[in-house]
UniProtKB/TrEMBL annotation:
Keywords: Carbohydrate metabolism, Cytoplasm, Hydrolase, Magnesium, Metal-binding. One of its GO terms (cellular component) is cytosol. Belongs to the FBPase class 1 family. It holds the Pfam family FBPase_C. The gene is fbp. This is Fructose-1,6-bisphosphatase class 1. InterPro entries: FBPase_C_dom (IPR044015), FBPase_class-1 (IPR000146), FBPase_N (IPR033391), FBPtase (IPR028343), Fructose_bisphosphatase_AS (IPR020548). Its cofactor is Mg(2+). Binds 2 magnesium ions per subunit.
Length: 328
């Protein structure tokens, strides 16, 4: 008999300190939004929802129509929940907070940080895209920002949905990584794998090699090490250019994904709070590693909600070798 995502969360009640009714109700808001997003994506090419929205977001990037839709879906499905103190989105400059209808103080316990539709520039060429989310607990002391700008090891839960041939949810609450496949016939995410483990070593490296000339030399040396069989395996290059898709393959097949510092993006391109942190949490829970130019991603003290970071993530063997090369 099938197990749905909601049933899985409830069954984990004992082992997840957060899996109270409030927490699983919150997760239901995320899964509802991702079902709405996937339905919109599936029909986008037919009903003209593809293409630019005509505005740029806080990142200075051209917003796609589906970026705006995905953001609104998450804000709508989560904004109605009393347990939400704030929402932090790649698409919004500031955290979104809510004045509760009864005018009382915002007593929300959780902050959800998300990239509503990562890789959306690939949609018009029909390439997989994804939603990435991270759940933080609101600290009683200090203002909201004090609860948002915390290192990734304080995350309560994290996950992503990759919209590909299947719509797959991958999630951790610190008690292993579990994956679920959306069954459109019943409109539920159905458990497909529990306690996923990233292979100890893979045969793929994934990076935008067009930037290699401007990387710090150590990254070029590292790629030469992989290419020359220095880790005892023959590697192939796979780069989709959609982070969730490249990460999902790395989680399942092993290997390494790298976005090092470049001349244009000396602090890295990918965002710490809603890309690197959630994926690093999943990678470590699956036995992998994630670093940002030498330091553990989950230990980085954020300074801003849209802060960028170099981001390298993957199997233990490849990542330990990278850490060694970076340590010089
Ligand atoms: P580049 C997509 O725009 C994105 O934010 C990630 O999904 C992806 O990993 C990265 O940028 C690709 O960047 O510079 O290789 O095109």
């Amino acid at each position: 008999m099938i197990t749905t995502f909601q049933q899985h969360i409830q069954a984990q009640q004992q082992s997840i300190s957060e899996a109270s009714g409030t927490f699983s109700y919150l997760l239901a808001g995320i899964t509802l939004a991702t079902k709405m997003i996937q339905a919109k994506i599936r029909l986008a090419a037919l009903d003209g929802a593809i293409g630019a929205y005509g505005q740029t977001n806080v990142q200075g990037e051209q917003q796609q129509k589906l970026d705006v839709y995905a953001n609104e879906a998450l804000l709508h499905c989560l904004g109605l929940k009393d347990s939400v103190a704030a929402l932090v989105s790649e698409e919004d400059e500031e955290p979104v907070t809510f004045d509760r209808a009864q005018g009382g103080p915002n007593t929300g316990k959780y902050i959800i940080v998300f990239d509503p539709l990562d890789g959306s520039s690939n949609i018009d060429v029909n390439v997989n895209v994804g939603t990435i989310f991270s759940i933080l607990r609101r600290r009683t002391e200090g203002d909201l920002n004090a609860s948002i700008l915390r290192p990734g090891h304080t995350q309560v839960a994290a996950g992503y949905v990759v919209y590909g041939p299947s719509t797959i949810l991958v999630y951790t609450a610190g008690n292993g990584v579990h994956s679920f496949i959306l069954d459109p016939a019943i409109g539920a995410f159905v458990l497909s794998e529990e306690r996923m483990m990233m292979p100890e070593q893979g045969t793929y490296y994934s990076t935008n090699e067009a930037n290699a000339a401007t990387w710090p030399q150590a990254y070029r040396d590292y790629l030469d090490l992989l290419r020359s069989g220095g880790l005892g395996k023959e590697y192939s290059s796979r780069y989709i250019g959609s982070l969730v898709a490249d990460f999902h393959r790395t989680l399942l097949k092993g290997g390494v994904f790298l976005y090092p510092p470049t001349l244009k993006q000396s602090k890295g391109k990918l965002r710490l709070l809603y890309e690197a942190n959630p994926l690093a949490f999943i990678a470590e829970q699956a036995g992998g590693m994630a670093i940002g130019h030498g330091n553990r991603i989950l230990d980085i003290e954020p300074e801003g909600i849209h802060q960028r970071t170099p981001f390298m993530v993957g199997s233990r063997r490849e990542m330990e070798a990278l850490a060694e090369v970076l340590a010089g």
